[in-house]
Amino acid sequence: MKLYIKQKVFSWGAKFTVKDENGSDRYFVQGEVFSWGRKLHVTDLNGREVAFIQQKVFSFLPKYHVFVNGEQIAEIVKEFTFLRPKYRIEGLGWYINGDFWSHNYMISRNGNPIVTIQKEWMTWGDSYELDIADSRDEIIALAVVLTIDCVMASQAAASAST
Known about the structure:
Blueprint: E1 2-7, E2 15-20, E3 25-31, E4 39-43, E5 49-56, E6 63-68, E7 71-78, E8 87-90, E9 95-99, E10 104-109, E11 112-120, E12 127-132, H1 138-161
Antiparallel strand pairs: 1-2, 1-12, 2-3, 3-4, 4-5, 5-6, 6-7, 7-8, 9-10, 10-11, 11-12
C-alpha cells in the first residue's frame, strides 16, 4: 500500500494531507503553532485522532514520543553523529537505514521492510511516497515517518537561524 505526503510550502505551522494511491484523502496532519516543542495530530477523514507526535522539550538530543490511539508506542531519538543523521526507534523493534538528507530510506524489522520512503523531486513543496508492506502497520509507519520529518525540519530551521 502506498501513501503520499505533500506538505504545503507556505502554511503557518505544519498542515497537510496524506493521500492514498488513488489520490484520495486518507489522513490530515495538523501541527500546533503555539506550543512548547513540536506537536502533530494525525486524524482520519472523520476527524478522529489516530496518531499524536510530541517532542520532548528538555532533552540533549531530539526525542519525540509517538502515540497511537492514545497509547505511547514508540520514542524516536536522533543520535549524536557528526556527518550523517542517524535515528533510533525505541519500543517497536524497528530499524532505520538510508539517506535521510535525500529522503530515501527504509524502516525494517528483522531485515523485513516495513516502509520505504522516497522523496519526489521537482515538485512544489516536499512530497514523499511511503510504500508500506503491511496495511496493519499503516498508521504507525506514517507516524514514525512524520516524526523523522519533524526532526529534520527542526534541525534545518535551527541551522538556518544561526
